[in-house]
Amino acid sequence: MRENMKKVLFATTALLATSGFAMAQEMQVSGAAEAGIFGGSDIEDQFHTDVDVTFTGTGETDTGLTFGFDIDLDEEIGDNNAVTGGAESGATRDDSDDGGASIFVSGAFGTITFGDTDGGFDWALQEAIIGSSIRDDHEHAGYNGNAGLDGIYDGQIVRYEYAFADFAVAASVEMDDDPDTDGDGNPVFGLGGKYTGDFAGVAFSAGLGYQTSDVDFDDEDVDDEGFDIYGLSLGAEFGGGFSAIANYSDLDGYNGNDSHTGIALGYTTGALTVAANYGVFDRELDGEDDVSGYGLIANYDLGGGAEVQAGYGNNDFGDDDVDFDTYSLGVAMSF
């Protein structure tokens, strides 16, 4: 059976190479792998492995339009370390919404991206985090990935963006594909703007994002009057290897959060990068304790796409019974 499958794969590859598939002009395969150890509060020390493969295809029409797609197999298959009885592996998920896949068309008019991509808010804002760790321990309870309202429905987003000089702007929409279960059909609209430049030897970046929706979840325990969220991020790379990122978001009560503030500081010398970040969700709207945390990383570049990564995260939920720490140490490889 396995030998027959190999024959089918080889035959299919040969057919694609000699057929109209050549219209794609270029196919690229990139990947990453991680191996190490992790643990923490009430977490047994254990080994970690993860592999991520991304396929990218690009092409160009006779009129000069470029087009392409990418698909992240890690999103499709799931983490090698999925928790038994907890997070469901992607291998058993219904991926009919094409999680991990996006398609774009680009020209003089700008770029339109469809699929599993960022809305205008997330696209514009820079996350207050520097460096990496194999288990993302520095992405603690107070960390904000700037998702905004992305994924409030099925996660399928259409984003338009246009760049000019040092500026870029974007607009996005996410539709409700199942009004009977998810909401009342009101879409999520997003807007974003970015700027990058240099001032007195400092590389500076700024982002401003907005998202809104009149979503109604038909749930007595959820504020269903809709949400209007705003965010601003600032980043700077100074001389001598120092860098800093600051981020603030007004979250309008979404997920019980009034606002979020984050800051990250980093330093790079030669192959070594060290960084720290802190973030806090203000939950005053619900009268609950703030949720915060801080993360630490140390990365050493071995060259050739390999890097030693150490990470630590402290998570504070305002209750000593649920506060916890995590750590990881290992090697990350890119191909």
UniProtKB/TrEMBL annotation:
* InterPro entries noted in UniProt: Gram_neg_porin_domain, Porin_dom_sf
Q: Secretion signal: which residues?
A: 1-24
- Residue stretches making up the Porin domain: 11-319
A GO term for molecular function? porin activity
Per the record, its GO cellular-component terms are: membrane
Q: Which UniProt keywords apply?
A: Signal
| Pfam families in the record | Porin_4 (PF13609)
- KW Ribosomal protein (keyword) present: no
Give the protein name, as stated in the record: Porin
Name the species this protein comes from.
Mesobaculum littorinae
